[in-house]
Amino acid sequence: MLKTKILLGLFLIVGAFSSCKKDTFDAEKQAKIDDALIVDFIAKNSIVAVKHSSGLYYQIITPGDGNIVTTSNTVSVTYSGKLLNGTEFDSSTTSFSLSGNLIQGWKIGVPLIKKGGKIRLIIPSALAYGNTSPGAGIPKNAVLDFTIDLINAQ
Length: 154
Known about the structure:
The protein has helices spanning about 1-20, 25-45, 105-110, and strands at about 50, 55-60, 75-85, 90-95, 120-125, 145-154. By secondary structure, it is of the alpha+beta class. It has a single domain, classed as Chitinase A, domain 3 (Roll), CATH 3.10.50.40.
């Protein structure tokens, strides 16, 4: 009986320590995975995209006209966001400051067009939500595909 209690105690201790495994996330490895996924995605969908120095891929559909957009602007946009498998997780018309709490991919990508412009951003996970899931059907390490119409910039 004592042996059983000792063995049970050891199993519980070992179980507790093995469940505390550290996250072995490798950002550099994930960046390579994301880039390969994006390159495959744009090839399969015949998208003519440019790779930004940040790792963001973009396609300017309509450049727009007017003033250059900066991160100090408040913008009004209509957008849709999808995963690479085509699942739409969000779409809306909204206004916000580009200096606000946005994913980096938007802060980099939206200023690439002017008022009236339309852009497609294919955002690697490091410029989106990274190794976390914000919910709304977006898994961790997700590459995001946004189409954004820039209605106004002030």
